[in-house]
Amino acid sequence: MLTICGYANSSVEKYADSNEFKFVSLTPPPTSKGDVNGDGEIDEMDAMLVSRYSAGMLNLTPDQLIVADVNGDGEVDEMDAMLISRYSAGLIELTAKPKPNDNKVVELEEIPD
Ligand SMILES: [Ca+2]
Ligand SMILES: [Ca+2]
Questions:
Q1: Of 25, 44, 65, 109, which residue is 20 to 30 A from 38 by alpha carbon distance?
Q2: What whole-number distance in Å separates Cα of residue 18 and Cα of residue 22?
Q3: What confidence score (pLDDT) does residue 95 get?
Q4: Nearest ligand, CA 48
């Protein structure tokens, strides 16, 4: 049996569906940025953990540090705690923003044949 890999809800999935091929989604699992204690909720508890970490009151595991750095600046500090707190209050969305130095534009050129 043929298996097709592709992104969920793409034309590839539709193609696999309509031809009864097995479809394997390549879409990564949703990011849990901000869910520091891993309970599935992003709330004040997570903000508190980040706040305490930045104050040197507790340690976080490497995995926790990755999700705790919600603004993606490489530091886990009060800014992240504030962002998580605001998110839990429904004030902001948590979306990974590209780093300022990361905005290289790749230009594609047509290759003459
Ligand atoms: Ca949590
Ligand atoms: Ca940060």
A1: 25
A2: 10
A3: 66
A4: 1
Tell how far the Cα of 110 is from the centroid of ligand 1, in angstroms. 48
Clarify whether residues 83 and 69 are in a common domain. Answer: yes
The widest CA-to-CA distance across the chain, in whole angstroms, is 63
Residue 31 scores a pLDDT above 90 = no
Cα dihedral 70→82→57→77 (10° resolution): 50
Q: What is the pLDDT of residues 11-25, one digit of tens each?
A: 888 998 999 999 887
From CA 58, how far away is CA 60, in angstroms rounded?
7
Beta carbons within 8 Å of 85's beta carbon, 6+ residues apart: 44, 47
How many domains is the chain built from? 2
Q: Quick one: average pLDDT of 30-36? A: 79
For residue 87, the ligand closest to its alpha carbon is: 1
Residues 15 and 38 placed together within one structural domain of the fold: no
Range of the structural domain that residue 18 is part of: 1-28
